[in-house]
Amino acid sequence: MRRTTTLMATAMAGVLALAGCAKDSGNGGNNNNAGAAGSCVTSTAPPVGAFGPSTSATGEKPDASAMRIGLSYDIGGRGDASFNDAAAAGVDKAKTDFGVKDVNESTAGPSEDEAAKEQRLTQQATNGYNPVIAVGFAYADAVKAVAAKFPNTKFAIVDDDSITLPNVTSLVFSEEQGSFLVGVAAAYKSKNCHVGFVGGVNTPLIQKFQAGFDQGAKAASNKIVIEDEYLTPAGDFSGFQDPAKGNVVANGEISKGADVIYHAAGASGKGVFEAAKSGNALAIGVDSDQYNQQTVAASKDVIITSMLKRVDVAVYDYIMALATNTLASLPKRFDLKVDGVGFATSGGKIDDIKPVLEGYQQEIIDGKITVATTPTAK
Fold first, then answer.
1. Between vectors from CA 241 to CA 291 and to CA 100, what angle results, nearest 5°?
2. What is the torsion angle, in degrees rounded to the nearest 10, for the CA atoms of residue 267, residue 262, residue 135 and residue 208?
3. DSSP 3-state assignment of 17?
4. CATH: 3.40.630.30, 3.40.50.2300, 3.30.70.100, 3.90.25.10. Which one for 1-24+55-172+310-335?
5. Which of 28, 36, 321, 371 has the largest count of CB atoms under 10 Å?
6. Residues of CATH 3.40.50.2300 domain(s) within the chain?
């Protein structure tokens, strides 16, 4: 039996994505509904297991009306249609469900230094916000420094588990597992047996997305050709907020023959979607269900699925755990077993291969497939 997070993920679908089985009325001239087993697929899909939603009860919702939350976004902030929006959705749902009234939001700049990050967190803690939630691994050094100065303030950081202070909670994910599943989807939907990955910044975290995607595509086909590129090197975080560069890199992959492009590039993904639309290719979103995100609505007809990284669920569960004094109950890592990652079905574009993806999903949950966290050298 999986824990309450499963039901939280189901509930959050209405907040983030309204994900469901509704069919899209048009395919924009793209191969959105390619056959479930096209000429690219060479592997037999595993059978669908007993995977399904938990039936456990969530219990009463706590009263957190007195809680004051500091929310420090990574670059792009609220409105990035991806990572930051997912965190915002978790806090927004906590407002609705738990009565939270006071939330202070602040956003990092593309090239700000550590002092600016520390100042942001310090200001929130000094002003009495508790907890302070830092969205993104770029805050690791700042959280470590500031949390040590405010031992009575609770901190949480998304995507980093390097801090061992007792007042810091890490919210980390198995991005490689969800990326494996959309890699399988890419292979099944590719007509050219040629797919691409666009990463925002070349860091160990984003390499997990690439590693899982590449492994999933290769699990479905031993003929698949994969293009893997990053917008910026480690240390240059502008790669998460440069749609123009995302467009150029995705167009380059399409010109080489890739007809399904998966991005893990934050707000830069908008440019990837635009390239897919203009290049008669398909695209796979990340973090949130991007088919339903208004900021990329013009390209929704080419988005066949998204790798769901449920930052919304992690943030929501963290707030609930604080309100109920049950922090120890949070998972050490939000993975497929607790619905911390997954894939979106909005638009109906992968309905024909959903059983295939669920079969692979169950094999990962059962430990029959171990997904790599670092890319294989080419």
1. 70
2. -150
3. coil
4. 3.40.50.2300
5. 371
6. 1-24+55-172+310-335, 175-309+340-372
Q: Which H or E run includes 93?
A: helix 83-98
Cis peptide before 110 (omega within 30 of 0): no
Contacts for 55-58: CB closer than 8 Å, 24+ residues apart: 56/1, 56/2, 56/3, 56/4, 56/6, 56/7, 58/4, 58/7, 58/8
Q: Give the pair of three-digit tokens for residue 167.
A: 């007042």
- Half-sphere exposure (CA, 13 Å, Cβ side) for 247? 10
- Determine contact, residues 138/76, Cβ cutoff 8 Å: no
Contact 198, 169 (CB under 8 A): no
pLDDT digits (tens, 9 = 90+) for 233-288: 998 989 998 999 999 999 999 999 999 999 999 989 999 999 999 999 999 999 98
Name the residue type at position 280: N
pLDDT tens string 157-188 = 999 999 999 999 999 999 999 999 999 999 99
| Residue entry with tokens 């939603």 | 53
